Amino acid sequence: MGLRPGMAVAQALTIAPGLEVAEAEPASDADALRRLALWCHRVTPLASPDPAAGVWLDIAGCAHLHDTEAGLVHTLLARFARDGLHARAGVADTPGAAHALARFAAHEGPAFAAPGDQATAIAPLPVAALRLAPETEATLRRLGFAQVAHLARIPRAMLARRFGTLLCLRLDQAHGRAAEPLIPLPPDRVLQQREAFLEPLLTAEAFTIATQRLADALCAELERHGLGARQADLLFERVDHQVAAIRIGTARPTRDPRHLARLLTERLETVDPGLGVEAMRLVVGLAEPLVWEQQDGGATPQDTARLVDRLVNRLGPDRVYSAAPVESAVPERMVGRIAPEGFDTRAHMPTLEDPIELTPGAPGTLHVLRQSNLALAPDEDPPALPWRKPWQPTDAKPAHAEPWPGRLQAPARLLHPPRPIQAIAALPDQPPVAFTWRRRHRVRRADGPERVHLEWWAADPTGDGTSGRAVRDYFQVEDETGQRFWLFRNGDGLDPRSGDLSWFIHGLF
């Protein structure tokens, strides 16, 4: 219709009388762009707004989560389109090339520059793709420089003398010859406290005092927001521009400054201050809502949580665990290891299905970079514990009733794996009259058998290579000295396919 940016509103209304006019709101637009960049943290932790209508995304190390870079970009653009946001995307090794492809590529779909080939990808684009001043663009077009490729053939000295150093810098940044660092947008409402020092710190006493001050200030901020810390990082900014860090986690949300400071100071000996620390920063990596609760006398869950925090902080997260019942008929598999109660710092991670809180219809661009390397460590299943705890079936009686009616009492101490023994017994169901384990034992009393069928669906239900043994007959026996043992025989004593009739000791009473 002949409308263009910069035209007076009266002139525009003359050309298009039905034009709808609204006041510009640059502050609101900038805030919406910032919130869009925060939403993009679902794809990559490194995202930042690019005024006035772009978002930088560093997807290095993240593309494999969507199979390929193209899969990631297409998924993101489809999510934008579903919420009424129209976006163009460019993928390249450098910010300058990604910016140029996103805004000036000939086709509407996402544009991809092959790794290391960004110069070829941006060569046919107009000179406006280099993010130059409008006056410089107009002068270049008037002189006949229509494409980026035309400028790449001109000696640098001539370009710098005629147009200044900015044109040469933009060319170098787009081609990867000059660095262009991006400042990633931190997650919304990051709770942190930072303290800089006039003189670099080197002693543990100074670090302890500074840590307590940071914890006091941070817990006050947590209280204002009604939150408690579940994970905190103490960063030491050294004079040689290196950063040392301590990370702690808590079983429950907390904002007790003494507790946080104590957990951190116990780890100070692991910090290398180098030539000195010029600043310290305490950052809450994970926070959860925390409200005041009325406490009665005696032990409370919070007391247990603090004990867990200190044990994990001193011994490591892999050495502190709780026991959980496992639905298994095999005694050595009835209990498994889990994290201590509440000690799970994996918060709900935002997904692409979470809503985008923006005004629909806003155009924009998406700049995708390959710059950093990120890795995700797969979770490992914890090993089983070598002791037994009764499991209450879902259809069993109430908790006060006997979990296994009619079952023999199992010992609290199990041998894992069961130890082979030599035993003398009459088949098929008689207990042993004597057995040898470390020494000769004559059996005075016995009870049993209690038959246990191993899990037929598991390749190795016992975990000790005895998958071919399908049945166990357990006996409680007492020797002439009063010692009591838990013995079992492989097989039912009749069918040879049920077991090889070998004997084992599995527990001590």
Q: Explain this structure to me?
A:
This protein is an alpha+beta fold and 509 residues long. Helices cover 25% and strands 27% of the residues. The chain is built from twelve helices and 17 strands. It has helices at residues 9-15, 26-39, 69-82, 95-104, 118-122, 134-142, 148-152, 156-163, 165-175, 204-225, 257-265, 301-315, and strands at residues 47-50, 54-58, 86-92, 111-112, 192-201, 227-238, 243-254, 277-289, 322-325, 335-338, 363-369, 413-425, 432-437, 439-453, 471-479, 484-490, 503-508. A six-stranded antiparallel β-barrel has the order 12-13-14-15-16-17. It has a five-stranded mixed beta sheet with strand order 1-2-11-3-4. A four-stranded antiparallel beta sheet has the order 5-8-6-7, with helices on one face. Strand 13 (432-437) and strand 14 form a beta hairpin. Helix 4 crosses helix 9, helix 8 packs across helix 9 and helix 10 packs antiparallel against helix 11 (257-265). The longest helix is centred in the middle third of the chain and has 22 residues, at 204-225. The protein is elongated and about 110 Å long.
Features:
509 residues, alpha+beta, 5-stranded mixed sheet, 27% strand
Give the helices and strands as they follow along the chain: HHEEHEHEHHHHHEHEEHEHEEEEEEEEE
Low-confidence spans: 359-364, 369-406
- What is the terminal separation in angstroms? 93 Å
Strands of the biggest beta sheet: in what spatial order? 12-13-14-15-16-17
Report the radius of gyration as a whole number of Å.
Answer: 35 Å
Any idea what the shape is?
elongated
Question: Mean pLDDT, as a whole number?
Answer: 81
* Class derived from helix and strand content: alpha+beta
Share of helix, binned? 25-40%
Biggest β-sheet description:
6 strands, antiparallel, barrel
- Name the beta content range: 25-35%
Number of helices: 12
**Number of strand elements:** 17
